[in-house]
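Most newcomers find our protein records easier to grasp once they have seen one. Sequence and backbone structure share a record, each on its own labelled line. To make this concrete, we reproduce a full record directly below:
***
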Amino acid sequence: RRLIKPRHKELYDFIHSHTEAKIMHHTCGSVFPFVQDLIDVGVDILNPIQTSARGMDPAALKREFGERLVFHGGIDVQQILPFATPERVREEVKRIVAILGQGGGYVLAPSHNIQADVPPENIVAMYEVIQEVSEQADSQRSPTAWATWDRRSSSTQCKRSLSSSTPIRCASTLAC
């Protein structure tokens, strides 16, 4: 924290002050104790959410940090995708979406790269749920909705708006 945190903050502050870029920080494993530090230095999106790691309970992450951070990942590539049945994969994807996707601020994705040991039918099962959830979300929002991100907001940082000084098109229906 003493060596790395100040330098990351300086870099991320510079990026935020000179661009409209969002900072996506990749850090694997059990990082719950460091998530507040990542927010403090200016991280906007945490990747991946490795729910199989100790202390990375998605409900606790969403409760503690969901108003200040977008989560990217969450679908387990170590146990669920390689070894579960397609039906179990569907259940797990729906469970993670229900937790991390509640209120927005979630990009539905695997927790890391999909490896060669994952059965193709499990990949298809995951993407079928993604398609289903995306279609449901699309039917509930205006096709002209844009996402805006206000880092200065004391409450929610990801807001829906029809006009914005810093519009970003939603890359995923769950990202906003």
The longest strand covers residues 70-75. The CA atoms of residues 82 and 116 lie 9 Å apart.
